[in-house]
Design a protein that fits this description.
Cytochrome p450; 14 helices; binds protoporphyrin IX containing FE
Amino acid sequence: MNSEPATLYRVDDLPALEFDPFLRASLHEAPVRRIRLPHGEGECWLVTSYHLVRFVTSDPRFSRDIAGRPIPKMTRHLIPLDRAVSFVDPPDHARVRAAVAPAFSGTAVSTLRPRVQDLLDAMVDRLMDGQRPADLVRDITSPFPLAVIGLVMGIPKADHANVREWATTLLTRASDEQAAQRAERAKQDSRVYFQRLAGLRRADPRDDTMTTLVRATESGTIDEEELLALATLIGLNGWHAVCNNSSNMLYALLTTEGLWGRLCAEPHTVPRAVDELLRWVPHKHGVGQPRITTEDVRVRDVLIREGEYVYVSYVAANWDERVYPLAGDIDFDRQAPKHLAFGNGPHFCVGPLLAHMEAEVLLSTLTARLPTLRLAVPREQVPWQTGILIRGPKSLPATW
Ligand code: HEM
């Protein structure tokens, strides 16, 4: 056991998009820090600085083979998906990822873009025909990525509400027994659902990612359990991550002097703005999944022993002042190394090109069609989700 004293990281809910003070202090005082978390067993490490986060996430001595272990964690119940790609190490990991890589490639995403634009245009038409103020989460940032991931995966519209419900349940911090049971049920129900959808595509192939996954099982690239875990992760994350991230982007743009006006006046800035907002938005609350060391590793001047758990914070790394001066400012003209909003190393997100494209379509459409868009309430009255793993507003009352 290492002699470094451990600090308790309580991972309390934070107001709006305020940067986590514990992460800020860790970045400044102890970028490799020994911590305890509210739940699970024992102590672990938290790595926050940009370069060290990149080091840990790309060095194979930090393994993701953690399923079923009694890890220190921020939630009382963690319901990891059996055989999820998040818990597979290379080289097996590359085999599983190869099964979906073509569906989320640059070519696939560019081909999809006109259909994504049509989906959003129809939603914005309805928004503009409806009453003011409207709720941008209910009317746009929730249904839009749901429709997109439905299209990509081949999930019929009638089932979208279920996908949203399962994602909301599974990606919330289950803090008591009832919530844990709800999460277990959602896990089972979504599994049965994707099993049925895979069966339908086996019998009647279509041009969608579920068919791609089914073909990968037929060619022996992945097995049935891997298909189900991948389909669930993509289906649920594909909505949940983009919904919250784009709600947060809109909140930041509408509450920071000058940003919305600049995007309206300079539409060519949108791709750069999306990248800077991805860096700035503190997407994840607390920590995600840890890694375990397969041998003793020195991380800067700290020795991490074999078998110890190590969390990284991509959110903290994206606010590391040594890499991003004035990190708390949203600066569309920032010249800086690549942000880590989608992670780093083998477990890099499956859908960054898709998520980027969705945000570009969203911001370019809303700035073009609703240049006078603004919050309809003082920013302090925007309600925020609590007890969550990914941060985001419950609603965004807005007018134009
Ligand atoms: C703005 C939106 C998104 C953000 C900020 C985001 C962020 C992330 C991050 C940080 C990771 C890596 C965590 C780690 O080190 O384990 C990750 C992994 C993952 N993401 Fe995303 N994501 C987003 C959208 C999406 C979308 C649209 C999809 C589906 C198409 C998706 C599917 C996944 C999957 C399957 C993984 C696991 C990859 C692996 O372990 O190999 N994400 N995401």
